[in-house]
């Protein structure tokens, strides 16, 4: 019976680090694990590394989730304020439209009165000329 070669934990850690940092092929690294009969220790270390990363991800998600919730609440407040502002703008617009209609009516009335005034002045001048002759 052949003695199983002792595998250094640092070698397995090195292989895991190589897998994490590599953007290339994983084949040579995985081949080194299985050729050296390190797959059991490698799988244990890999599971441990996965748990650590899962905890990191969960921590980051919890942190960002709280920020997300705060942002959503802030957006809901902004939406409510925007609705109030929209209603206020509509009210002001309606008021301005009514004021504009009143002003237009008064301007038309003023134009009519000025036209009448000019006609009266013209009639007086004409009558004055007729009576002077």
From TrEMBL:
Pfam families reported in the protein's UniProt record: EXOC6_Sec15_N (PF20651)
A biological process from GO: intracellular protein transport
GO CC, any one term: exocyst
InterPro entries given in the database record: EXOC6/Sec15, EXOC6_Sec15_N
Record-annotated Exocyst complex component EXOC6/Sec15 N-terminal domain positions: 45-131
Annotated transmembrane regions: none
Entry protein name: Exocyst complex component 6B
The organism of origin for this protein: Desmophyllum pertusum
